[in-house]
Design brief:
membrane; 5-stranded mixed beta sheet; two-stranded antiparallel ribbon; Heat Shock Protein 90; HATPase_C_sf; rod-shaped; 2 domains; about 400 residues; 12 helices
Amino acid sequence: MSADQGLREAWERIPTPGEVGQELERFAGRRIERIIAIVVGVGALALGTQALINALVKMTVPDLPHLSMTALVFVPWLVMLACCAIGRGVRVAAGVFFVTYIVVLALWPFVASRGPRVIPGDQPWIFFLVNVAGVAAVVAFPLGVQITWALIGPFLYGLVRLIQGGFRPEFWIVTAFDVSFTLILGLVLVALGWMFRSVAKGVDEARGRAVTLYTEAASAEAVEHERVAVAALMHDSVLAALIAAERADTDRARILAVEMAREALTRLANAEAPAQEGSDEPVQIELIAEDLRVTVAQLGVPVDVERYGHGAVPDRVARAMALAARQAIGNAVTHAAGRGLAIVVEGHGDTGLTVKVSDTGGGFDPSSVGADRLGIRASILARMAAVGGVATIDSDRRGTVVTLGWSQS
């Protein structure tokens, strides 16, 4: 596969705006959500393990109320950890854990009152899960719910703790410290989640805009490429057929004109088919010179094609140079009446090829050619540039020389 074919294949695989919305719209967002899920899983594992050990150590046997509450909160906790690990169902599992923790928090004063007298500095296991519920809210719920829990959740725990301690003065200081710690940490976690999601959203939006603009540019390039191709076809085939018909003063010339017209009509009918630009298979310069001899004969101009050197060029290059040379010959016949027309094909072995088409007409100023005249711009200059070649046009009142060159890089 050539470099041009590779670039064209890659260009055609650029997604459309609809595909962008389906596949790339949340490219960074999905990855940020996965990272958040992993971080939440690690944090929930660390804090939840402390809470579970605390709950099991302090549980009196048999204590069915405590056992039921422990199961009520830690079973969803384990499910949430599993979902964070596999990356599936994280939001649902986190939401269930969040709700069950609130239920346990509400029931705590009633269950804890059945146990022994509590000590102010002895934190209950529900304390370790306040911020676990906070990160679960970050995963499962919108920003408003996250902020609400970060502000209210610590105070709810503080109220539950004070109720459990009977609002005794020694509980106030310890509880205030716990509440302030969980409040600050919860707000920091919410802020981090919001920041990373905002950055990911901005990246996705920028990515979407870039791909959309790139797709629009690809569409515009395709339209321009088609316009240039059709214009080049008109100049290469249709105009040559018209010139041949105008100069047909013998039966043989009329037959040639009819054949050229039939070929032009066939190429016009197949203009929407994929462009056959040739392959990288080598083509000998003798074939290129012979093709130009046929072109000159079809135009009815008694000019021989001179050939020097030897060598070969890729088929795609040979086609482009032959078509560009045909256009130059057609221009010389049309605008200079074929005066002093000379065609030289010079091979440089395996390194390149040069084709020169010259005439002794009145010449012209290439810079004054209108933008809508694509005989030179599209059929010669653009065609050579498309295969990595060069085309130069030197023209004055003594005549015009069109030089087409391609070298192996």
